[in-house]
Structure formats: structure tokens, C-alpha cells
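Long-time lurker, first post. I've been practising inverse folding by hand and with some scripts of my own, and I keep getting stuck on stretches where the C-alpha cells seem ambiguous. Below is the full C-alpha cell string for one chain I'm working on. Before anyone asks, I'm not after the true native sequence, just a reasonable design that respects the backbone. If someone could post their per-position residues I'd love to compare against what I wrote down in my notebook.
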């Protein structure tokens, strides 16, 4: 199956949206064609990359026009495993408002020119307003009710890396913590 991740970003930001694939091993997939449509009032596609994906090293091209990005990918090496197939770069409109959404609709997904079947799952891009949090020297406790597409520690804490000593969460009656550069025994809050 081929799916696109639900994603979010701030007005004026550049973001990457992943198209993912499952169940590729042993299917002989050496060609992928995808058409993705989106709302041009909210997003502008800027290009694609396959670095760090299950299609790393594949030849990949795209054509961007009128709210569509047409993607063609091919290789003599078969896809194997599951994961991100391709990353699509988008710029979020600086005029977009908090809560606005753009459907991310997959169509004409073709594996090996239609010789391998694939189901599709569409996604949604949501504009989120920038939130500023003022931290004071010493301990700070804050909570944010925000549904993020990527909940990994590296994604959530990436922009403040090096500016904190520890991160704690209360999960199902237990405190969990993450201490950067701490021993594994000090970290029970993990990706």
C-alpha cells in the first residue's frame, strides 16, 4: 500500500511530507509513478528527494503544475521493506491561517506500470500557528496540547537542542525522562 503522512507546518515555513510504502519486499517493484494533488492556496510544491528512504539511489523526477506533483521513479534495484518512499518539499503560504487544511490526495499510483497492485491512503496538511514559549532560568514546566505528525524526540526537540537539561513526561501513572548525552539507564523516554 502507498500512503501519505498527515503533516503540519507554520505559515511561511518549508516542510517535508512523506509518501510511505508498505509490503514492498519480494514484489519486484522497480518503477513507481504517483500523482499527488494539493491546495495551492496553502501549499507550493518545491521538489522531491529520496535520500534516506527505501528508494535511496533510485532515479526520481517530478513535474509540478496547477496543484499537482507528478512523480516518476525507477531503478534496476527492487524496493525492499517498508518506510518512506519519497519526501516532497512544500512551502506553506505566508497568508495561510491557523487550522486551514489542504487535502493531500494520491491518484494514479502505479507500481511497475500497473503490474503490481497497490492500495492508497490520502493525507491532510494542517496549518498551525507559531507558538512562542518563554523559558526562565531554572526549571520550567509546560504542556502543549498539539497533535504532531512526527512524535520522535529528535523532531519534537530538534529546534531547542542543547537548550535543555532534561525532558519529563507523565505517562500512565509513571514519570519518564530524557537526558541528552545521559547514560541509557537515565533515559526511559525514547523515540
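-- Answer (accepted) --
I ran through it position by position. Result:
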Amino acid at each position: 500500500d502507498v500512503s501519505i503522512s498527515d503533516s503540519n507546518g507554520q505559515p511561511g515555513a518549508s516542510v517535508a511530507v512523506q509518501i510511505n510504502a508498505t509490503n514492498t519486499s519480494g514484489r519486484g517493484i522497480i518503477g513507481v509513478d504517483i500523482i499527488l494533488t494539493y491546495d495551492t492556496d496553502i501549499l507550493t510544491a518545491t521538489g522531491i528527494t529520496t535520500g534516506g528512504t527505501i528508494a535511496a539511489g533510485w532515479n526520481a523526477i517530478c513535474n509540478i503544475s496547477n496543484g499537482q506533483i507528478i512523480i516518476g521513479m525507477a531503478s534496476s534495484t527492487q524496493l525492499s521493506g517498508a518506510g518512506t518512499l519519497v519526501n516532497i518539499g512544500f512551502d506553506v503560504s505566508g497568508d495561510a491561517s491557523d487550522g486551514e487544511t489542504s487535502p493531500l490526495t494520491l491518484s494514479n499510483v502505479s507500481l511497475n506500470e500497473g503490474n503490481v497492485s497497490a492500495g492508497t491512503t490520502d493525507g491532510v496538511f494542517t496549518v498551525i500557528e507559531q507558538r512562542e514559549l518563554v523559558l526562565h532560568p531554572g526549571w520550567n514546566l509546560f504542556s502543549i496540547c498539539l497533535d504532531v505528525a512526527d512524535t520522535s524526540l529528535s523532531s519534537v526537540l530538534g529546534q531547542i537542542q542543547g537548550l535543555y537539561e532534561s525532558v519529563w513526561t507523565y505517562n500512565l501513572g509513571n514519570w519518564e525522562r530524557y537526558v541528552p548525552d545521559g547514560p541509557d539507564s537515565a533515559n526511559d523516554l525514547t523515540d
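A couple of notes from the structure itself: Residues 55 and 175 are 39 Å apart (CA to CA). The mean pLDDT is 89. Happy to go over any region you disagree with.
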